[in-house]
């Protein structure tokens, strides 16, 4: 998978599983509105991000690469 921002990564992984936002919310133990917030570019807490990543099967290395890329200064 090419480098994507966090919102896109979450949305794409959820769509690959054919889950609604509500489905992901239940599996991650968060609210549906929180899933929507993250998918529209909101910044979740680390614990929320871990829950969502675990539910989606996103590896720690994949998640770290996305987060590091987003934090890198753009020239």
- For the residues shown, what is the average pLDDT? 87
Query: What's the story with the biggest beta sheet?
Result: none
Radius of gyration: 12 Å
* Helix/strand order: HHHHH
Structural class: mainly alpha
Contiguous helical run count? 5
* Helix percentage range: 55-70%
Number of strands: 0
Principal-axes geometry comes out as globular
Strand share of the residues? under 5%
Spans of at least 5 consecutive residues whose pLDDT stays below 50 are none
**For the terminal residues, how far apart are their CA atoms?**
23 Å
In short, what is this structure?
The chain has about 80 residues and is mainly alpha-helical.
Structure notes:
This protein is mainly alpha-helical and 75 residues long. Helix content is 67%, strand content 0%. Helix 2 crosses helix 3 and helix 2 crosses helix 4 (46-56).
Write the layout of secondary structure elements.
Layout: H1 6-16, H2 21-28, H3 32-39, H4 46-56, H5 60-71
List keywords for this structure.
75 residues, mainly alpha, 5 helices
């Amino acid at each position: 998978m090419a480098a994507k921002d966090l919102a896109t990564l979450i949305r794409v992984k959820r769509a690959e599983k054919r889950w609604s936002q509500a489905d992901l919310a239940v599996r991650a133990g968060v609210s549906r509105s929180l899933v929507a917030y993250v998918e529209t570019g909101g910044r979740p807490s680390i614990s929320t991000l871990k829950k969502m990543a675990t539910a989606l099967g996103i590896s720690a290395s994949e998640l770290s690469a996305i987060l590091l890329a987003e934090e890198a200064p753009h020239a």
